[in-house]
TrEMBL record, chain A:
It is found in: Cell inner membrane. Keywords: Cell inner membrane, Cell membrane, Membrane, Transmembrane, Transmembrane helix, Transport. One of its GO terms (cellular component) is plasma membrane. It is a multi-pass membrane protein. The keyword Transmembrane helix applies. The chain crosses the membrane at residues 6-29, 50-72, 84-107, 119-140. Pfam families: Sulf_transp. Belongs to the TsuA/YedE (TC 9.B.102) family. The lineage of its organism: Bacteria, Pseudomonadati, Pseudomonadota, Alphaproteobacteria, Rhodobacterales. Its main location: membrane. It comes from the Bacteria. InterPro entries: Sulf_transp_TsuA/YedE. It comes from Paramylibacter kogurei. This is Uncharacterized protein. The keyword Manganese does not apply.
TrEMBL record, chain B:
Keywords: Membrane, Transmembrane, Transmembrane helix. It holds the Pfam family DUF6691. The chain crosses the membrane at residues 5-23, 43-61, 82-110, 116-133. It comes from Paramylibacter kogurei. Coiled coil: none annotated. The keyword Ligase does not apply. This is Permease. InterPro entries: DUF6691. It comes from the Bacteria. The keyword Iron does not apply.
Amino acid sequence: METAFTPYASLFGGVLIGFAAVLLMLMHGRIFGATGILAGAIVERGQEQVWRILVILGMIAAPVVYVLFTGVMPAIDVPITTPAIIIGGFLVGIGVTFGAGCTSGHGVCGIARFSPRSIVATITFMITAIATVYVIRHLIGAV
Amino acid sequence: MKNISYIIIGLVFGLGISISGMINPAKVLNFFDIAGTWDPSLAFVMGGALITTMIGYRIVFGRHHPIFATKFSIPTRNEIDTQLIGGAAVFGIGWGIAGFCPGASIPAIGSLKSEVFIFTIAMIAGILVARALKNGLMSKAKI
């Protein structure tokens, strides 16, 4: 399934993602890592849990606000089977926990402060993601 | 005000994810599919987010402390170990299978699509299993 190349919308969206990361650091001194925010919203207690739940509520509200401005939902097409969604989700959960971060925590916030751990992690998950899609689409020939 | 700021920051992040196309697994998987239906858009998302965060962090770290907190909470670990690389590698495999990373799947919940719920539940299961395994590894190391 082809998708349209959207350099301007993607660049603007990326700037907003970075702006949110900067605001969280400016106001609260925290890294915007979706992994840490999600895990902390489940296992932390007290204010450490509350602020993370509030950030998540704001994130979940985004597609609704997007609809108010544009009149349509952002496209969300999941071109894989349900078992693949479950396996993928489970592996993402395992990986981000052992790797202590994901695209936002390592790929954006970590690299922005030149953390060697984050640079290594980002290069690693980019390579395995590209390799995985190559194996699934071009070697096995699924999808 | 402090609590509202968390919601707004989450909302800005989620709008960035929605507008950029990062919320769409079909688009993310095409970014990884260099040998097939390649869509380079996500390079613009990462680029926009990184440049914004790099510049913003430079300005913010010129302050003595965040607006609402007494100090900046920055990760201090710098060891590049098996857990970091292994975890990042597994995350990339999951991301390459499903097309969602944590920061994209959380805003996508707002679309109320069943695939997003399935992915998120599987991801949270992975996080909880990995946390239990990690705690087990740590208590073993202490013995």
